Backbone:
């Protein structure tokens, strides 16, 4: 069982101590005997311990940086929400395929932001700009927010904030089962709690450092019992030798172990594995022994809207994926909604 994340090293911006959450975290880490260093900016953490890049990368993944989020312009977040709400950046998991490998670049450490009220004020302006339409905010575009929230509770604050909001909805996705502190949050049904699920093969070989499948299913049942709308993201859908049977077993386990009430208002999102050339280089450096297949010759090149192309599966493989997993959803969860396949 993966234990809840505890940083081995903490960096703090001096300004973070001007906020209650910054003070609370400093006291918490002092009490735990964790080394705290100062940094002028959460974007400028240097001299992480380690003999080489490989060691420094692993140190970074166990380092928490406590800072103030200065940029309160939210990125748009398609297809799952209108905007990304920035509560944290980075992740303690070691998923080989993760797109954060490249977007985080030389800063793979985990950052949490203590000016949560200012972030909520910014969210309010976005909601007012779209009112009376609903505005959905995605809290896990740049992090697995649940993985760090047992320390910060900023996600819990966000859930309760949106629980009282007139036009806002919150969404996030996690691979971690450490959800107990979120079960009594006053969400009022306005937060969709999603879990990233995959075939056992993918979790075993490509998602080290995350909760195992059975733990995620158990956590999903708890979340549904607490009244949250529930969702599953099957991502990345990955074609390995016995993938159809592996994904069938996944859906069978979900069906057998989830209580009936968890399947009401259930959503699925399907995302195929993709990679970019820069990501491939970074992944091969960080995880040189990975089983992750990234053979450009086998893939189709798809231009992105920002001019950066990615390698996706061939059209016939994509159709097979969509047909197979869509069939499993129809078979095991006929009342569920498939939001998209990409």
Residues:
């Amino acid at each position: 069982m993966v234990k809840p994340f505890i940083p081995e090293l903490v960096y703090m911006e001096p300004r973070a101590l001007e906020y209650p959450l910054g003070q609370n975290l400093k006291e918490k880490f002092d009490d735990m005997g964790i080394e705290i260093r100062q940094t002028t900016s959460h974007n400028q953490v240097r001299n992480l311990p380690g003999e080489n890049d490989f060691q420094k990368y692993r140190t970074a993944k166990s380092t928490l940086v406590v800072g103030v989020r200065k940029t309160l312009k939210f990125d748009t977040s398609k297809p799952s929400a209108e905007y990304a709400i920035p509560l944290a950046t980075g992740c303690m998991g070691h998923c080989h395929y993760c797109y954060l490998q490249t977007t985080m670049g030389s800063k793979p450490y985990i950052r949490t932001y203590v000016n949560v009220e200012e972030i909520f004020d910014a969210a309010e302006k976005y909601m007012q700009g779209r009112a009376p339409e609903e505005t959905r905010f995605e809290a896990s575009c740049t992090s697995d927010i649940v993985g760090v929230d047992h320390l910060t509770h900023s996600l819990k604050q966000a859930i309760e904030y949106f629980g009282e909001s007139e036009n806002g909805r919150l969404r996030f996705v996690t691979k971690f089962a450490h959800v107990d502190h979120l079960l009594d949050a006053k969400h009022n049904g306005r937060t969709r709690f999603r879990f990233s699920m995959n075939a056992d093969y993918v979790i075993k070989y490509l998602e080290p450092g995350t909760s195992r499948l059975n733990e995620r299913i158990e956590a999903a049942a708890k979340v549904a019992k607490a009244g949250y709308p529930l969702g599953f993201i099957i991502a990345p859908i990955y074609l390995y030798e016995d993938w159809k049977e592996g994904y069938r077993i996944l859906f069978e386990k979900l069906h057998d172990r989830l209580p009936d009430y968890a399947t009401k208002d259930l959503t699925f999102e399907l995302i195929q594995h993709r990679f970019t050339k820069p990501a491939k280089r970074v992944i091969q450096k960080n995880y040189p022994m990975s089983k992750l297949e990234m053979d450009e010759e086998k893939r189709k090149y798809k231009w992105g809207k920002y001019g950066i192309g990615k390698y996706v599966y061939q059209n016939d493989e994509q159709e097979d994926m969509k047909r197979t997993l869509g069939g499993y959803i129809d078979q095991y969860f006929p009342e569920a909604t498939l939001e998209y396949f990409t």
